[in-house]
Design brief:
Length: 208
């Protein structure tokens, strides 16, 4: 590992700790899967408000699989893109019931074969449910990894590959958790608080 990357990781560990945190509320693996699907282009806080009632109303996988599309759309409307999300949730939960015996699969290949599940969602499941080392590339990770010079790529899959080479395996899951907090509190997309940032000297966009 490059000395520079080592220093970045050390600062992130010191500032944001090394505890595994999931910002989405869930009790079962399939609930986390649905919550992650809902979180696309939506804040985790808003998803948690929606799923509080949603998971009470649809308290089994079967209820989601047999849900009325129009009704489910209304139930998840505040998360945005609700037509697509509702359609994918029904198709995904049906596939879980029919193909996987009601269990959320572990492999990237099986997970990404489900409707509405891309690599990011699959890696959230692999990291949080199965504790398989995986790099989750969300908007914070994409933006900040480029700023820190850990990748030059735009494509999430290429960024994922770059970070897997760059970061030690024990930080693959952790990096995402730390960067989300960092991206929400310090390195915000609009008007980042550069004067408070401990990673200034590694930032490609910081102007002295």
């Amino acid at each position: 590992m490059k000395k520079r990357t080592e220093e970045i990781i050390k600062i992130l560990d010191e500032q944001f700790g090394t505890e595994y945190v999931c910002y989405l509320h869930y009790e079962t693996p399939w609930q986390l899967l649905i919550a992650t699907m809902l979180s696309a282009q939506c804040t985790d806080a808003r998803v948690n408000i929606v799923t509080k009632d949603l998971f009470q109303k649809y308290d089994t996988l079967e209820k989601f699989a047999n849900a009325d599309l129009k009704e489910l759309e209304q139930d998840i409307k505040p998360t945005g893109f609700y037509h697509n999300k509702a359609k994918n949730i029904i198709a995904c939960t049906k596939a879980l019931a029919e193909r996987f015996g009601g269990e959320v699969p572990r492999s990237l290949e099986d997970l990404t074969s489900l409707a509405g599940v891309g690599r990011k969602t699959a890696n959230v499941i692999r990291g949080n449910i199965y504790h398989d080392a995986s790099v989750v590339v969300d908007t914070h990770v994409k933006r900040i990894s480029k700023r820190l010079g850990l990748t030059v790529n735009e494509d999430p899959e290429k960024i994922e590959q770059d970070l897997m080479k760059e970061l030690p395996k024990d930080h693959w899951i952790l990096y995402n958790i730390q960067i989300i907090t960092f991206g929400r509190t310090v390195c915000t997309a609009r008007s980042p608080k550069c004067e408070q940032c401990r990673l200034q000297k590694y930032c490609k966009e910081y102007k002295m």
